[in-house]
Specification:
Layout lengths: L19 H16 L5 H17 L2 E2 L8 E2 L3 E5 L13 E5 H7 L10
Antiparallel strand pairs: 1-2, 3-4
Bound molecules: zinc ion (2 copies).
One zinc ion binds next to loops.
């Protein structure tokens, strides 16, 4: 018996798709995702940075130019030079809350010119 609810085929959106070509495409997607190199050193490194920060300071976001320090259970490591801009994935950075990190995005852009 099925352990999962029926899932729509992501290719044709039909609930019960028996098109082998579609199945193959889905398998390819899965394989590609599993192969993504992102997982390893960078993710571990970031997790370690957050862990070290929490050990020392607790679950606290130090704040940034947009918001003051506050307690946060959702901390992440923010690279000084974003990896997407060619920064070292294991390079320096700091711990901030995830919302501050995503608010800033990867572009290091500053809103307004204060
Ligand atoms: Zn399909
Ligand atoms: Zn914050």
């Amino acid at each position: 018996m099925p352990t999962h609810p029926p899932r729509a085929c992501p290719v044709c959106r039909r609930l019960s798709c028996s098109d082998a070509a579609h199945q193959k495409r889905v398998d390819d997607w899965r394989a590609r995702r599993a192969r993504r190199p992102y997982n390893h050193p960078e993710r571990t490194y970031k997790a370690e940075q957050v862990k070290a920060w929490v050990l020392e300071h607790g679950w606290v976001c130090p704040g940034d130019e947009y918001h003051a320090a506050h307690s946060s259970g959702d901390l992440t490591f923010d690279h000084e030079v974003p990896v997407s801009l060619g920064g070292d994935p294991l390079g320096p950075g700091r711990v901030v809350c995830r919302s501050a990190n995503s608010r800033r995005g990867n572009g290091r852009r500053r809103r307004g010119s204060a």
